[in-house]
Amino acid sequence: MLYNVVLFVHIFGAVVMFMAIGILFTAMISMLHAKGREQIVQWSSLAVKLDGLMPLSTLLILVPAVYLVFAGWGWGIAWINVSLAILVANSIVGPIVNLRRLKVILQAANSETDSVLSTALMGKVRDRVLWSSVSIMTMLTVGILFLMAVKLPLLGSLVTMVIAAAAGLVLANVLLARTKPATSPDTAAIK
User: Fold this and answer.
1) Regarding predicted confidence, which is higher, 4 or 159?
2) Where do the TM regions start and end (predicted)?
3) Domain around 152
């Protein structure tokens, strides 16, 4: 009975994390396509709040996971070890890389007075490091789901994560390449 309750908490934590990452990615894409400053404020505010859910969802996943490993699975299973390592890495990288940059976007959007998007603000939204980080984290999360379903040995688990990270990097570059940077009226007049 306890095992099933702990498994539920673990799955609930995973659902919260996957929802947060999915909505964060949606907010990022929405900022990239925003037409006005207010949209950037709304989406970046949501992204900042969602990125704050990562530590809580990580705890809801990790604490039960440790129990589940001791109670049933054991530490000798590669997909579990790789998934947990990636989960911890995502939970550290998220606040360090993403949250700081998302707060900069929100602060910049709040400080602008013109409703037209400035090139400086859009430069922050198009931050390649932020996009690469969020995209890679999203694809690594998909990789973790894949490992949970397929339960690969060590080499397969590592290859899955390398492919997921590469797919995240490609995704970030494709999304940035497919959207043209916004031009403010002053730069548009120069052209």
Assistant:
1) 159
2) 6-32, 53-70, 76-97, 129-148, 154-176
3) 1-178
Number of domains the chain contains? 1
Flag whether 114 is in a domain.
yes
> What's the pTM?
0.84
d(CA 13, CA 45): 22
Q: In whole angstroms, how far apart are CA 7 and each of 1, 12, 61, 64?
A: 10, 8, 9, 7
Distance between CA 177 and CA 88 in Å, rounded? 30
pLDDT per residue as tens digits for the range 23-52: 889 999 999 999 889 999 999 999 998 877
DSSP string across 51-71 = HTHHHHHHHHHHHHHHHHIII
Residue 27, φ and ψ in degrees, nearest 5: -65, -40
Q: What is the largest CA-CA distance in the chain?
A: 70
Nearest to 47, CA basis, from 13, 97, 111, 112: 97
Determine whether 177 is exposed, middle or buried from the number of CB atoms within 10 Å of its CB (0-12, 13-18, 19+). exposed
Tell whether 66 is covered by a domain.
yes
Q: Is 184 part of a structural domain of the chain?
A: no
**Could you tell me if 184 and 119 are in contact, meaning their C-beta atoms sit under 8 angstroms apart?**
yes
Question: From CA 180, how far away is CA 4, in angstroms rounded?
Answer: 49
- Letter for the amino acid at 12? F
Q: What are 57-73's pLDDT values in tens digits?
A: 888 888 888 888 888 77
> Is 188 part of a structural domain of the chain?
no
